[in-house]
Amino acid sequence: MHMQAMGNGGPQATSARNQVHNTQEGAGLRYERDRPIHDLVTELATLQPDATAISFGDKRLSYRRLDIISSALAHELARQGVVKGDVVGLFLPRSLNTIIAQLAILKAGAAYAPFDPTYPVEHLRYMIGDCAAKLIFSEHESLDRLASIAGETGNLVDLDRLVASIEQTQEARGPVCLVSGGDAAYVMYTSGSTGRPKGVVVPHRGIARLVRDQNYIRFRPDDVVLHTATISFDASTFEIWGALLNGCRLVGIGDRQLSLEQLTRTIANNRVTVTLLTTGLFHLLVDHRLEGLQSLRHVLFGGDVGSASHARRFLRFYPDCLLTNAYGPTEVTVMASAYTVPPGFAGDTLPIGKSIAHSEVHILDEQLQEVPFGNEGQLCVSGDGLAIGYFNRPDLTEERFVTVTLADGRQVRVYQTGDMARMDFEGSLEFLGRRDRQVKIDGKRIELDEIESALRQDERLADAIVMCHQDDTGKRIVAYLKPLQPSADGKLASEVLAALRTRLPAHMIPGQTMVLDIFPLTGAGKVDRAKLPIPSREAAPSATDETAAHDETERLLAALWGEVLGIQNVDATKNFFDLGGTSLQLIKVHATLQEKYDQLIDVVALFQHANIRDFARYLNGEADASDKVARINSRAQRQQQMLAQMRRRAI
């Protein structure tokens, strides 16, 4: 498928910012559906050349320099054979140069496709091959790994070296080619029910409509917008382009592992005013790090069902801060509806609000007819946020993007989200869950059928079923395994999961498994999923004498791990993620430990020493000298206090 001198600025920048602000007073900058987003950045660079566009740590880039360097890079892409409609891959972390590359790719008429470097080889190889990336940008230290993955399918480019070779350019070059608002801007891969990820192709206008002339947010020229999302997660679209299409400053957190302490420190030090967080991260922030966020004027969260109690606690602490619950799948460019929680909100559940501008939401029945207000139906979305479709998947595009006739006689193209909802007379939406087997955990979309498909390719299994169960400690994915041959050594589940980790990202690996010789069947001979046993949290493999916690530090950590994961007798030699933990839960562990230590603990160390035994050695000063931190003071006295606190703060 071929698709269509730096600083915060002086008086000149201030004047330009006022000009930007006054373009459309009260509603932000004008939305122009046919203009590509890089034209809008160039226009802002003309209006406010010296204003800071991006900052990562001590590195800053003005709008003028961003425009010049990205234009030079776009022409270099053209010299290397990139033409309009091509796809350019990004095998990169959050960084200043990554954003330069994204803008340059758009200026070259191509679309960028972000690949998460932490994904397993087979997953990455499929995505790179599927989108037929013309070339792939990478960091120097990742080139060898990328070469082993991409093989002959892509031309690999050291981005940092290439940017260094052109960063002395002084004059912006003209357009490489003509691009319109309907042309492809990026390809974002999401979990696919067929067993393979699917690439969602988003146009320029979908991005521009998300952040310009909107009803759910009013960007101001002096806003500072936080960038915490990985570039392969579509929340980064709001962060990056929300800032750069409104003349704001984008502040990035460049470290690969995020912690609450790092997050709040960045907000305070940079006077961040606007941030979009995953729902889970917002909940953790409320539970552990509410202090020091006075600079925030608008906090948005989304990606999962929001907690009304957490919203109330945040607003009690910051009553003047706008707090918005956002809803929207990747196929509608990040967001379809939004609900700004009012002070004094007393409901048990948070609505997902009304349609954002330049989009429209519809509640349809099985025949794709609009249902009366108050009735339940499938939530569908129309408008300028809709994706062009799925890359190389015309069949799936035709299935999920359909034309319907509304009650008023209009014919519109809608995306069927698969979410169930009802709409009240004022147009506000209540989310009612899924109609299919898609779930969201930590803001990441997971098709359970994709996991099943991958498991069924294991020659040791006759069949596999994957379910998502939810209890007080959160959601967990459970895999039910039916062995081809009876297994007496008890290693089948661990061996199957080890193989699965080479095929799927970590967030898609089941946290628990059950080996069953027989699956319950319905009268029609199909697996009766409702009768599959639900394993208790305690059913996870427990520690033996050899693997149980040995000393005081290990016992304290085992108790904390168990509280967060909802299991007992934690194996001190098991990796946190192998026990069913997620990155967000590990951040929660880190936040609690930070509260109990006299010195800071590097969150990267917690990811590097991801089992209790290794991390206890690290804490006890028995790891490498470069990794040492202060010992726990009065551990025995603090243990009960810590566990009590975790119980009060459990999400």
From TrEMBL:
Alphabetical list of PROSITE patterns matching this protein: AMP_BINDING, CARRIER
Keywords for the protein's UniProt record, in alphabetical order: Phosphopantetheine, Phosphoprotein
SUPFAM superfamilies linked: Acetyl-CoA synthetase-like (SSF56801), ACP-like (SSF47336)
Biased composition (Polar residues): 11-22
Entry keyword annotation includes S-adenosyl-L-methionine: no
Top-level taxon of origin: Bacteria
Record's GO cellular component terms: cytoplasm
Pfam families for the chain: AMP-binding, AMP-binding_C, PP-binding
Domain Carrier: 548-623
GO function terms (MF aspect): phosphopantetheine binding
InterPro entries tied to this protein: AA_adenyl_dom, ACP-like_sf, AMP-bd_C, AMP-bd_C_sf, AMP-binding, AMP-binding_CS, AMP-dep_synth/lig_dom, PKS_PP-bd
GO biological process: amino acid activation for nonribosomal peptide biosynthetic process; secondary metabolite biosynthetic process
Source species of the chain: Borborobacter arsenicus
UniProt name for this protein: Amino acid adenylation domain-containing protein
Region listing for Disordered, in residue ranges: 1-22
Keyword Phosphoprotein listed: yes
PANTHER family: FATTY ACID SYNTHASE (PTHR45527:SF1), NONRIBOSOMAL PEPTIDE SYNTHETASE (PTHR45527)
